[in-house]
Amino acid sequence: MRLGVHVPTIAPRSRMEDAVAGLDARGHALLAVGRPAPGSHLTGLEKPDAAAAGGAIDVLLAGPRALPAAWWAARLRAQAVVLALDARTRAAWGLLDRWAWDVTGGFGVIDEADTAHFLAHAPEAERERLALWPATGERAAPDPSTLAETDVLERACERALARRSAGPGRAALFVDRDGTLVEERHHLSDPNDLSLLPRVAESLRAVRAAGHPVVLISNQAGVGRGLFPEERVHAVMARLRRMLRAEGVELDAVRFCPHAPDAGCDCRKPGGRLLREAADDLRLSLRDSVMVGDKWIDVDAGRGVGATGVLVRTGHGAEEAGLAAERGGTDPVFADLPAAARWFLERADA
Fold first, then answer.
1. Residue 242 in this model has a pLDDT that exceeds 80
2. Are 25 and 143 in contact (CB under 8 A)?
3. Is cis: bond before 144, omega within 30 of 0?
4. pTM for the full model?
5. Active-site residue 178, yes or no?
6. Looking at 86, 178, 294, 300, which residue is catalytic?
7. Which ranges constitute the DSSP H helices of 78-220?
């Protein structure tokens, strides 16, 4: 996503500040506006000429005041607004803040301690635009990309953008990463080893230009097996985001399972939890969507949620395709992602 950050309203050492740093580490494009507050850790994001840059962004991130956030959202042509809300500031909002909150259809992230206030004072439609920061607890200071706060803010941005910029029931292209988008490397954990397969960026650009979201779904068992920490996955995903962005492609969402194969989770493909969560966040029609990968577990993940599964012969796909007859031979198989993407677009337009 392309995110505007109104840094003067984000409190230093706050959960919002940590989460913004995490989004930066995950490879989202951040455009900071305004002067950071004293003690802010977001000084590295500051761009004094940001207001003059003028390009449209997806979501404007800000502190608890709705009016300045709405002003910057209009100036940067943001499609959605996500605020770090608190009960005290929300109770002191004047008419202009309330008007700005309604006009922008703002989403907010709140602490659990403030839940009672928002349940008592927010209408039902407004409550659906609220997310909870994770429960607080003792923890070390991990890489910001791995924080639960970063997960919450990222999903709040995705939900806000989908509900402000698109109708429900969109057909999406779900894609595996290794062997499908990028060259297969056994347990890839070094961003420098990332290499896009031929014509992948061009194909994804065409899919998004036709109005279809692109969602990456990946198994990353190396984390669960102790081969590398979770922040390495985010680092690789961040470089992939930036490589695709340089080619004019924004990934609409990235979801991965960090568990070992024997963990018994439902997020590891062929399980479908990650696809279902993304469909809910982005307002997708799973029935009309397609899951593309180089293994049958990718195909089965799609089929398991009612989508269509497609195998490509890149990566492990050539070997996997040899098992097609054992499966009945009914699943689509294509040479590579560009061929699968062309079929997806033809299918969506039929």
1. yes
2. yes
3. no
4. 0.94
5. yes
6. 178
7. 87-91, 95-104, 115-121, 124-127, 148-165, 200-209
